[in-house]
Amino acid sequence: MQPENAEPDRAIAPRSGSPDRETPSADDALMARIAAGDARAFSTLVDAQLDRVLAAARRVLGNDAEAEDVAQEAMLRLWRNAEKWQPGRAKIGTWLYRVAVNLSIDRLRGRKETTMSEPPDSAVAPEQQRSVEEEDLKVRMDRALQDLPERQRLALVLFHYEGLSMAEVAELLEASVEAVESLLARARRTLKTKLEKQWKALLPEMDS
Questions:
Q1: Which residues contact 101 (CB under 8 A, 6 or more apart)?
Q2: Which of 43, 107, 192, 196 has the fewest CB atoms inside 10 Å of its own CB, making it the most exposed?
Q3: What is the mean pLDDT of the segment spanning 144-161?
């Protein structure tokens, strides 16, 4: 993969505390070289991290082509933002993973979006009315999901919408099963408060 020069998307401020294969000092040294425009260093990073990023994206998307697009975009975002890397904050693999999963979830959401046509002049049949109401509920749920803290949103989407097991979610989030359970519980409480009675229509099994 060849890096591209572009304006930074955002400041890189990855979280610390997650295990990874490389030490922070090794990551920081590599990012310093990449920030200086060292394409060979970037190639080294891609060789070391691409398989893992691809696997994360593929697990969420279930599509090899889309997973490759996501992995490439994650790598390019890291290249563009290399100068903003903050030494000692976290590890390259952790940052790339979070970007890849977030991009994958955005693609999943795009698959489910529908474009509604102009309202018909004639009366809407009961079945059509129910469909519109259900779509409205999904839109509200989507907005509520976007407002959740990142890790709560990822845990909820991966566990409920993508059907991953608790252990699989824990592996993707690099957390314990107990931590995932806590994330899900907090996310459910937040959604229940925001959506009141409507949330049960979308997530009936989450009544806890």
A1: 56, 57, 60, 154, 158, 172
A2: 196
A3: 82
